[in-house]
Amino acid sequence: MNKSGQIIIHLVVWLVLVLMFVFTGTGGGKITYSTVVWFLYFGAINITVFYINYLIILPTFLNRKRYAWCILTILFLVLISVFVKCALAYYFYEIIMLRDKGKHVIVFWDYFFLATVVSTLFIFLSTILKFVSDWFLNEKIKSNLENEKLASELAFLKSQINPHFLFNSLNNIYSLAYQKSAKTPEAVLKLSEIMRYMLYESNESKVSLDEEIRYLENYIELQKLRFKDKAYINFEIEGDTRNLKITPLVLISFVENAFKHGLATDKENPITIVLNVSSDKLYFQVINKKSNQNKDETGGIGLQNVQRRLDLLYKGAYRLHIEDTETIYNCELYLNL
């Protein structure tokens, strides 16, 4: 909350408290000269004590961990306020020190003790408010730092993805160009669409699920060109994908992993990709036959990266199951969109 908002809240609280005490202390809110003396002069002293402690003493000494000086200064403030109250009490002797229409006189030390208790109470209230407000401020700072750390880590993870895909895709296009394939221009176009998505659309925290699917399709088509249309991939989409959002570049790592470690040229065991949507729940599965010959020797970020991103972005809202056998690699992702 900004300072002007805090000031307004403080003013409203004090106004409500003063009106409440005036109403209850005067038997219905009747304003008299004695009411002005009690609540204007003495109320002003108590509120001043409250804010001197809250705005000056505690921030000055507690933040520097000078506790002894803090206690001594508070004691001095209480003592000064009590003496000022006593001086006012004798100035307004008939209003303050006389009770029951002059039949009872308050002894000085009794009033001194009462004034000390009241000033100490306002010191206590301001100290409690200071600790509570500092606690909320620290929690806000802690939350902001955690959010900044999260954003930085996500940006770092995403920065690992983009160069990696570009590197692999350029290798694929280089292979086509080296073979003087007529499909090289088509591959360049697919790469252009992929890079446009990665550089622009994927900067959003959430993108359309349909856009993410088109990105997967472009990547798969680029891989097919690489294998001269001898790659066998079954990409099945089930359910209504419209009006759904997903974090960009979450699904692609599973598909890339299938091409990197899988056997894409086996007609009997094609790479199978299933995307099923039911309401706001997504099921994504990638199955591939493992191959020891089709490996990316340059390495990559792998599934460890995407799992970390899922932990950060979908904590408690996803389940990832990986089955890794000698011949089959099966990834299943259950995601609440």
Gross morphology = rod-shaped
Q: How much β-strand is present in the residues?
A: 5-15%
* Rg value: 36 Å
Structural class: alpha+beta
The major β-sheet equals:
5 strands, mixed
**Number of DSSP E strands:** 9
Q: Into which percent range does the helicity of residues fall?
A: 55-70%
The helix count comes to 9
With strands numbered from the N-terminus, the spatial order across the biggest sheet is 4-6-7-9-8
Describe the structure.
This protein is of the alpha+beta class. It has helices at 3-25, 33-62, 67-91, 93-96, 108-178, 184-199, 209-226, 252-261, 302-313, and strands at 98-99, 104-105, 207-208, 233-238, 245-246, 271-278, 281-289, 318-324, 328-336. The strands form 3 sheets. Strands 4-6-7-9-8 form a 5-stranded mixed sheet, covered by helices on one side. The longest helix has 71 residues, at 108-178. The protein is rod-shaped, with a radius of gyration of 36 Å.
